[in-house]
Design goal:
With 333 residues, the chain is mainly alpha-helical. The protein contains 13 helices and 5 strands. Helix 8 links the parallel strand 4 and strand 5. The chain is globular, with a radius of gyration of 21 Å. Bound molecules: tryptophanyl-5'AMP. Tryptophanyl-5'AMP binds next to strand 1, helix 1 and helix 7.
């Protein structure tokens, strides 16, 4: 009966910049998998974004393959979702120019990620790093999604994409759908295991601070055993117990138990037992992904076939939106 009802659309992307982390998984990727049946979904490896910081060409190339392979290993299905590599669809960079000319310098200057990243890469504060949220807006707006599943750190970029869409539509007429961020209740901000004031990030030099989706079981358990807690004891969520709170969040996001269920489960127990349980739950969740990945990454030809097909499919959608925007601005097509 409902067959003709059009599905709502979802789009998201991930950078191929090194190992993907448990933060990427709980903040975004897990939701992508959960959403692909219910939504008309589009997912991309955002390779153009990766060069806002220096990349070694051979390494970048291999990370693009491995990131695409991880998406498949998670259970994303190219038959159900459009899965592609951003640079294969030139309309992303092209629309980004149109949008740049409709974005103010002042609003870009407020982006906190730019401030963080330019401090971290002080020797290469390039214009791409500055205008990156405009490219991200183009990634999104080309596909007219209703929802964009991301972690909390991308919320500000999503808001700017919405502002750009609204402004463009008001000025030139309706072209873009104004998207909404879809941020999970638990796992939207997974923190470093070594410094719970910092976001878990693959660029952290301390290897114990983050868990990679492809880490093996022993490594995962070791990292959780070393996770920073506090000297007080007591397993409950509190601002004074950021390390423990982070572990509770991770356990809750992985097991699907609520925070109070987790607190009850570990009431009166020691940190050693708790950290081991979190490590094991995470390792069990990630093990099948690693197993799938090891199989998928060996077949490069199949990977290429899938991302080329995905790219063609994506471009058919992107081109329509892009031409419509061009026409509205006054270009001769
Ligand atoms: P990226 O590649 O840094 O991260 C990919 C996704 O993972 C989420 N994430 C986290 N979630 C919770 N806790 C963490 N510690 C954590 N670390 C990362 C991010 O929020 C993100 O959802 N600019 C984007 C990529 C992008 C994009 C887009 C996203 C490019 N174009 C269009 C959505 C729509 C980025 O750098 O994410």
């Amino acid at each position: 009966m409902c067959e003709n009802v059009e599905k709502k659309k979802v789009l998201s992307c991930i950078q191929p910049s090194g190992m993907l982390t448990l933060g990427n998984y709980l903040g975004a990727l897990k939701n992508w998998v959960n959403m692909q049946d219910e939504f008309d979904s589009t997912f991309a490896v955002a390779d153009l974004h990766a060069i806002t910081v220096r990349q070694e060409p051979a390494k970048l190339r291999s990370q693009i393959y491995s990131t695409y392979a991880i998406l498949l290993a998670l259970g994303l299905d190219p038959e159900k979702s459009t899965m592609f590599i951003q640079s294969h669809v030139p309309e992303h960079a092209q629309l980004s120019w149109l949008l740049s000319c409709n974005t103010q310098f002042g609003e870009m200057s407020r982006m906190t990620q730019f401030k963080d990243k330019s401090a971290k890469h002080a020797d290469n504060v390039n214009v791409g790093l500055f205008s990156y949220p405009v490219l991200m807006a183009a990634d999104i707006l080309l596909y007219k999604p209703d929802f964009v599943p991301v972690g909390a750190d991308q919320k500000q970029h999503l808001e700017i994409a919405r502002d750009i869409a609204i402004r463009f539509n008001n000025h030139y007429g309706d072209v873009f759908t104004v998207p909404e961020a879809y941020i999970p209740k638990t796992g939207a901000r997974v923190m470093s295991l070594q410094d719970p004031d910092k976001k878990m990030s693959k660029s952290d030099e301390n290897q114990n601070a983050w868990v990679a989706i492809l880490d093996d079981k022993d490594t995962i358990i070791r990292k959780f055993k070393r996770a920073v807690t506090d000297s007080e004891g007591g397993i409950y969520v509190s601002d004074e117990k950021k390390g423990v709170s982070n572990l509770i969040t991770i356990y809750s996001a992985v097991t699907g138990k609520t925070v109070s269920e987790v607190e009850r489960e570990f009431e009166g127990k020691g940190y050693g037992e708790f950290k081991l349980a979190v490590g094991e739950a995470v390792a069990d969740e990630l093990a099948p992904i690693k197993e799938n990945y090891n199989r998928i990454i060996t077949d490069k030809a199949e990977l290429e076939r899938l991302f080329r097909e995905g790219g063609d499919r994506a471009e058919r959608v992107a081109r329509k939106t892009y031409f419509k925007a061009m026409k509205k601005v006054g270009f001769v097509l």
